[in-house]
Amino acid sequence: MQYTKRDKVRIQNISSEKESYRTTWRKDYARLIHCPAYRRLQGKTQLFPGHESDFFRNRLTHSHEVAQIAKSIAIRLNYLLRKRGLSYRINTDIVEFAGIAHDIGHPPFGHQGEEALDERMINFGGFEGNAQTLRLLTKLEKKELIPETHYGFSESGEDKRVGLNLAFRTLASILKYDKIIYATKEEREKALAEGKIHKLIPVKGYYGSEKELVESIKNHVLINPNIKGSFKTIECQIMDIADDIAYSTYDLEDAFKAGFIKPIDLITLNDSEVVKEIINKIQLALGKQLSLADIINVTGRVFNNYFGYKKIYSLGEDVVLDDEVLENIHTTSIRYAVAVSDQIAKNGYYRTDFCSQLIGKFIQSVDFSQINEENPCLSKIKMDEDIEMEVETLKQFTYQYQIMSPKLKMVEFRGKQIVSFIFDTLLENPGLMPADFKIIYDFATNETGRRRAICDFIAGMTDKYCVEFYAKLTSENSQTIFKPY
């Protein structure tokens, strides 16, 4: 919304822009699609390990689904702007870029890999997937070499890398959290004591090393720099909502397909520890107190079209039935509910229909809550309150049933163990890294820089490559020992 020449400025003006038939945003999209980190998303876990089945989503397919949903939201919002006689428009290329790029910084083995790297970096700037996304796009990827540098470093060791050298408005679209993550364990413990965070886990934000860059992003994107509140552009907000929609529907579909959960599990809830944790997570996300009854009402609405559209029995209040008839009604109702649940979980047509209906409903609930006249790029959007509740509930059910499942606990445990082992080994033997990362490691002037070089190398691994690298360090299998890397 209200794009300016300053939005199009890149981190470094290294070469003149060519191909005037393509916009800056379309060029940035192409730079993303052709970079190695984008391709590696196909080898990173979304919900289930990739080797389990070709059916399940990986980070790449998830990112494309987020991009499609985000673009649909942007098209709808542009339609609403036209309908209301407003001249603003949202650039769908930037929105699509944000959807594909939003997870590009995530390490192998998802949250467990993230925790392992954060534990090794907790006193050296920390590690977090969103912060790594910004770092990867602006430092680690290799698109344009800065003149008179070696691998992007000056003779004095100053890091002058610019990554894909993207435009500032493009970079703003993936800046989800406008805060520096805690650089040390001491800072994090203080924040915990003050109630600013709830656990000593990776904190969402950006690295302190990117502070100057983030300030440049804001200075180039904002028309009026004197803003109140956090910085989050309209394109970034759309991507964030689209990510939640994809998580709450498509990841739920994968959970159905894998047999981790069935629809009937969501409408016959009890006061279990898993459900308590789900309610707690929803409360934190939405900032309101909720009861088990509230959640049951939400899941009932979600599945109403399937469980509620057919009334097996319609009885007046004055009808009196004997016990035998009542027992038959209850038995038939239970059988019907189980049959419908199995149908959705096991039949691809019904799963697709279920997800399609939900996604359509969720997209159509997004609207503007505020048009920011001073900084149109910071105009606010929101979902309908009831729909937001449905999205958050389904998202938390999918996540909690996944992490609490004994089927995945072993995979998560091993993934974190492997990442931790590789980091510790490279810390003692940095020469085991590939040559380009070893060069970057050697340019580092302190332990923070050296650890960050190791962290960047591991964070870029796919799940499979991570396991193979681990095997090279621990086994005598000639296939893995001599396989090039």
TrEMBL record:
The keyword Transmembrane helix does not apply. Keywords: Hydrolase. Residues 59-248 form the HD domain. It holds the Pfam family HD. Belongs to the dGTPase family. Type 2 subfamily. PANTHER family: DEOXYGUANOSINETRIPHOSPHATE TRIPHOSPHOHYDROLASE, DEOXYNUCLEOSIDE TRIPHOSPHATE TRIPHOSPHOHYDROLASE. This is Deoxyguanosinetriphosphate triphosphohydrolase-like protein. The gene is dgt.
